[in-house]
């Protein structure tokens, strides 16, 4: 008897102590849907996936030298090329969005060591990865699965391990401006030379400030396209380009081809079913929901505030 198609997507915010390091959880379970291929696009978050019913099938990684594989748990660093995920009509798991500023505290190393890399989570987390997988699979509800994640990640969290304040500030400034601040501005604001900032930022985050700004802007544009498609307003590429800081539609199209491997119209056609399902679920915090550049504190204010937050 054919399986009745069904899809579930459930978003959840982590425990408060985890939120500076982890943007959110999304649980997903789809059965009986047409087999397909999904593009995992570059974003300002590292990705961690803990599967439920079947392994994650990676048909292609951002690093083309990495062979296709199947994973029960996976950690992926920031990347600038799409990953390709295949499924046979069933897929399920929980996806975590990790801030690159939280890589040291949760994974034990800077995000810069994971750029364009996908790994079995056990490589970084050791036995905790298997425990996560087993306990999440055994939990009967989404609420209990998210509670398991909170408990185990809080056990792992090392709040004393963090990047330098100047780098934390520069990264958050990029997010707050939607990638609209230049490296020279950032360097002036933190009091470093552009060369020193670029080197330190790349080693910690994994991308240069200029490339990170492009990823942040691209992520903002693709989320807006997804939301418009979910609301039945597909198209309007020129408007999306103008809203998200691109010079024009051609500029947006070039970044889409570079980061997604296809133009935005093709991505929308391929992903529209997911966009439709996600219309009532905020996948992870959008960068344009953060403070504007005018509201962003100075480096000194940021350091004073962040130091008083108990992190």
UniProtKB/TrEMBL annotation:
Protein name per Swiss-Prot or TrEMBL: AraC-like DNA-binding protein
PANTHER family: BLL1074 PROTEIN (PTHR46796:SF15), HTH-TYPE TRANSCRIPTIONAL ACTIVATOR RHAS-RELATED (PTHR46796)
Keyword RNA-binding: no
Record's keyword terms, sorted: DNA-binding, Transcription, Transcription regulation
Pfam families hit by this protein: DUF6597, HTH_18
Organism: Plantactinospora soyae
Domain HTH araC/xylS-type: 165-270
Entry keyword annotation includes DNA-binding: yes
MF terms (GO), sorted A to Z: DNA-binding transcription factor activity; sequence-specific DNA binding
């Amino acid at each position: 008897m054919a399986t009745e198609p069904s899809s579930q997507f459930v978003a959840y915010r982590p425990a408060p102590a985890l939120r500076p390091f982890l943007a959110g959880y999304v649980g997903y379970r789809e059965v009986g849907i047409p087999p397909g291929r999904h593009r995992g696009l570059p974003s300002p978050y590292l990705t961690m996936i803990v599967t439920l019913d079947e392994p994650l099938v990676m048909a292609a990684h951002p690093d083309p030298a990495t062979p296709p594989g199947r994973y029960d748990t996976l950690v992926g660093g920031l990347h600038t090329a799409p990953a390709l995920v295949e499924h046979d009509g069933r897929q399920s798991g929980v996806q975590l969005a990790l801030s690159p500023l939280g890589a040291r505290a949760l994974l034990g190393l800077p995000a810069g060591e994971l750029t364009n890399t996908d790994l079995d989570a056990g490589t970084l987390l050791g036995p905790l990865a298997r425990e996560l997988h087993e306990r999440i699979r055994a939990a009967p509800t989404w609420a209990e699965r998210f509670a398991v994640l909170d408990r185990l990640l809080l056990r792992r969290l090392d709040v004393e391990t963090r990047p330098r304040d100047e780098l934390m500030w520069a990264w958050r400034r990029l997010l707050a401006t939607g990638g609209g601040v230049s490296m020279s501005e950032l360097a002036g604001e933190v009091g470093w030379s552009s060369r020193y900032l670029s080197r330190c930022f790349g080693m910690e985050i994994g991308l240069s400030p200029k490339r990170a700004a492009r990823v942040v802007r691209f992520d903002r544009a693709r989320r807006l396209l997804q939301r418009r498609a979910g609301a039945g307003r597909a198209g309007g590429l020129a408007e999306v380009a103008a809203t998200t800081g691109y010079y024009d539609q051609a500029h947006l199209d070039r970044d889409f081809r570079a980061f997604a491997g296809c133009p935005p119209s093709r991505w929308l056609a391929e992903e529209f079913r997911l966009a439709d399902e996600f219309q009532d679920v905020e996948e992870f915090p959008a960068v344009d929901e953060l403070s504007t550049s005018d509201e962003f504190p100075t480096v000194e204010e940021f350091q004073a505030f962040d130091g008083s937050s108990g992190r």
